[in-house]
Amino acid sequence: MTEYQGRIIKGIGGFYYVDTVDGLFECRARGVFRKEKITPLVGDTVRIEIDSVSGTGFVSEILPRKNALLRPPVANVTQMAVVMATANPKPNLYLLDKLIAAAEQAELEPLICWNKTDLDDGEELAVIYQRAGFTTLQLSAETGWNLELLREKLRNQITVFAGNTGVGKSSLINRILGKEAFQTGAVSDRVERGKHTTRHSELAPLPDGGYIIDTPGFGSLDMSQLAPDNCGLLFREFMPYLDDCTFRDCSHTVEKGCGVLGAVKNGEIHPSRHESYCRIYQEVMNAQKRRRN
Ligand SMILES: Nc1nc2c(ncn2[C@@H]2O[C@H](COP(=O)(O)OP(=O)(O)OP(=O)(O)O)[C@@H](O)[C@H]2O)c(=O)[nH]1
Ligand SMILES: [Mg+2]
Ligand SMILES: [Zn+2]
How far is the CA of 5 from the centre of ligand 1 (A)? Predict the structure, then answer.
């Protein structure tokens, strides 16, 4: 019997695949978890006990989680790469801002990735997000432009990739995993094979530390968890102005003496970000009304 500490990178049919210094092990969960009503999650750091003969074993302990997402069901995610194309498909800033708000709500650091810069450099778009206080990368999966920078940002993080279809998430991930991914052998082969079965989330180990998750389903903002008053907190560049509003219950949409609207007028907050805020605020209000009825 050998003990390891590792990370669950995949869970299928009651089996958990745990990435350790000695490679990948197939494990079952101990019955005690069922009694305690804890289910191991992909992303969990766990202790496992491996039978030296069969090479399989049990998850014996789940170490404390930093966080746990519902969609995708993954624990200990540290970062959300929000991918948009500068062209083809045309950028959808409202969707981008919603994804960023979802990341902020989940307390994940957003990493804004403008892909397809070979088609359009996206400079003006990148500047909007840099000035709002986000780490922003201009990339091309096609030419490899700035992929070293992306690789650096992904190192030792657990990053979930989000963004609408066709923006190049899988292309970026494939470029990042690249040749090295095949060299890491069985682990990556397994991950590669499972990548398009979107029913289960799995972590793809990065060659120089960290993991990435390609989940097409992620990103919808959970409006039911949001109070209208808190919407402003999901737009980090609004923070310095929230105390300047004349009215304490200011919605930052139309009020006189609103600090946020003042900053939009002065050019300190970009109008498109504020427009997205207003739309999210309205959606949250509508969701609240629906719940009351
Ligand atoms: N010109 C150009 N095309 C790209 C780039 N990255 C990806 N593409 C193309 O864009 C298309 C979509 O890329 P995918 O990687 O499948 O996009 P995705 O975001 O994974 O899409 P879904 O899996 O549907 O969510 C493919 O035809 C890619 O070849 C890029 O940097 N430049
Ligand atoms: Mg894809
Ligand atoms: Zn206000």
Answer: 36
**Among candidates 212, 209, 264, which has minimal Cα distance to 235?**
264
My answer on whether 286 and 189 are in the same domain is no
Give tens-digit pLDDT for 192-215.
Answer: 443 333 456 789 999 889 999 876
Residue 135's domain spans which residues?
A: 79-214
Pocket of ligand 1 contains residue 162 by CB under 6 Å: no
- Indicate if 99 and 208 belong to the same structural domain: yes
Q: Is the pTM of this model over 0.85?
A: yes
Among 153, 185, 214, the domain boundary falls at: 214
Count the domains in the chain. Answer: 3
> Is the same domain home to 230 and 282?
yes
Of all protein residues, the one whose alpha carbon is nearest to atom 25 of ligand 1 is: 165
- pLDDT for residue 221: 66
Kindly state whether residues 91 and 202 are assigned to the same domain: yes
- 84, 92, 171, 212, best to mutate for ligand 1 pocket (most atoms within 8 Å of CB): 171
pLDDT for 133-170, tens place per residue? 999 999 999 999 999 999 999 999 999 998 888 899 88
Q: Give 200: exposed, middle or buried? Use CB within 10 Å, 0-12, 13-18, 19+.
A: middle
The secondary structure element, H or E, covering residue 290 is helix 271-292
pLDDT in tens, 103-120: 998 899 999 999 999 999
Tell me whether residue 10 is in a domain. yes
What does each C-alpha distance from 24 to 78, 111, 191 come to in angstroms? 22, 29, 11
